[in-house]
Specification:
By secondary structure, the chain is mainly α. The protein has one domain (13-48, 69-141). Helices cover 76% and strands 0% of the residues. It is built from five helices and no strands. It has helices at 2-28, 30-50, 70-89, 91-112, 124-141. Helix 2 packs across helix 3 (70-89). It is globular and about 45 Å long.
């Protein structure tokens, strides 16, 4: 149950972050805002590590598969694209489209067991759930 609450909290933070990043980008520019957000995130993470809150070992960085570092590239793309979408669509429609894309991709990653994750088979129920989400998204997006 705690994991679901934490996941919901991250969704709340994502909607707020997208809104804040969009406001920042209107002032400094889209790519510039993306840079500032990542810089502040890196400094915040560094501070947390210096406070001893890390639980891993940075010395193991070379042991991670090369493709795991693509998350940093994707992070830039995500912030850029979220801000671009929110500024054109609004927070609710953009967030709805983002969630549908996330769930579809998550189901695919689960099914294929990508990145060393345990495979969780795709089912008719999951397909129906995604279709219902997409239908709900269409209702939210229609004006």
């Amino acid at each position: 149950m705690l994991a679901l609450v934490l996941a919901a909290l991250s969704g709340i933070f994502m909607a707020l972050q997208g809104s804040l990043n969009t406001a920042l980008a209107k002032t400094v520019g889209l790519l510039e805002g993306t840079f500032i957000v990542h810089l502040i995130g890196a400094l915040t993470t560094l501070l947390l590590l210096l406070l001893g809150l890390g639980q891993g070992n940075l010395a193991n960085y070379s042991k991670a598969p090369w493709y795991t570092y693509l998350g940093g590239v994707l992070s830039v793309a995500i912030i850029y694209l979220v801000v671009s979408a929110i500024s054109k669509l609004g927070v609710a429609p953009a967030t709805t489209a983002i969630i549908v894309g996330q769930v579809f991709t998550a189901a695919l990653v689960d099914h294929l067991g990508w990145f060393g994750l345990e495979s969780i088979p795709f089912s008719l129920g999951k397909a129906l759930g995604i279709a219902l989400m997409a239908g709900g998204a269409w209702l939210l997006l229609s004006r």
